[in-house]
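Readers of this paper often ask what the protein records in our data store actually look like. The remainder of this section carries one protein's record, kept here as part of the documentation.

:::
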Amino acid sequence: MSVRTRVVATREELAAAWQVRFAVFVEEQGVPREVEVDDLDEAPNTTHVLAVDDPAGEVLGTGRLLRDGPGHVHLGRLAVVREARGRGIGAVLVSALEQVALERHAVGDPPAVEVVLSAQEAAMGFYRRLGYTPVTGERYLDAGIWHQDMSRTLTRP
């Protein structure tokens, strides 16, 4: 299976991202439907990315990136459909989102971009393998699931 990523550019693509998130977060993990989609999904500083099975065109995963301010972004809502897990799609999505963070780094911003994410504790090993480290080690409940903040600093090559 070949997977490619693309930045969401249409309402239909955003709906496909939501469909993946509902399948993973709402149906599998019990996150309340009303909190899964928020105002940030359609904010001008938000970028969504899809992982798509090539050539079938099936959407396998998604993630979003929020530009918090100069040199700071928040990676979140990373989800891969159950049938596609274990194939490296999550890592491909994180890499694509990090690339977006670097590409949208504005002139005059600090030379590095800090990427922060709210990791479900069960997924912290995955993020560690991608170079993320816990920010404080404090855990907190989000939608009934234990999380910790993690971060990684990116620089342009």
In short: The beta strands are 2-7, 46-54, 59-69, 72-80, 112-120, 133-142, 145-155. The domain at 2-155 is CATH 3.40.630.30 (Aminopeptidase). The chain has four helices and seven strands.
